[in-house]
């Protein structure tokens, strides 16, 4: 039987823009503005995809002043020289 969490994570990752955002987050913690610009997305679209990733537990947030920083949740997603791993 398929683990429901695994199925949910796979569904979240089928969207190419979310994969691109995760790839950018492999570089480290980033702001929405940076992620949107580097991924070629409007800020509202980047925010939408980041919220989906947040709800799936793949990213974490930290607010400093008026800036929201996103980072990969190391308990769920890891990046290394071999690529991306969803745990």
Topology:
Elements: H1 4-12, H2 16-25, E1 30-31, H3 32-39, H4 43-55, E2 59-64, E3 67-72, E4 77-80, E5 83-86
Antiparallel strand pairs: 1-3, 2-3, 4-5
Helix pairs in contact: 2-3, 3-4
Sum this structure up briefly.
The chain has helices at 4-12, 16-25, 32-39, 43-55, and strands at residues 30-31, 59-64, 67-72, 77-80, 83-86. The chain has 87 residues and is of the alpha+beta class. The protein has a single domain, classed as Winged helix-like DNA-binding domain superfamily/Winged helix DNA-binding domain (Arc Repressor Mutant, subunit A, Orthogonal Bundle).
CATH superfamily: Winged helix-like DNA-binding domain superfamily/Winged helix DNA-binding domain
What is the C-alpha radius of gyration, as a whole number of Å?
A: 13 Å
Multimeric status of the protein: single chain
- CATH names the topology as Arc Repressor Mutant, subunit A
What structural class do helix, strand and pairing data support?
alpha+beta
Ends apart, CA distance between termini: 17 Å
- Element pattern in H and E: HHEHHEEEE
The helicity comes to 40-55%
Question: What CATH architecture do you see?
Answer: Orthogonal Bundle
Number of helices: 4
Largest sheet: 3 strands, antiparallel
User: Strand order across the biggest sheet?
Assistant: 1-3-2
Number of domains: 1
The residue ranges in which pLDDT falls below 50 over 5 or more consecutive positions are none
- The average pLDDT is 87
CATH C-level: Mainly Alpha
> Judging from the principal axes of the Cα atoms, what is the shape?
globular
Number of strands: 5
Strand content: 25-35%
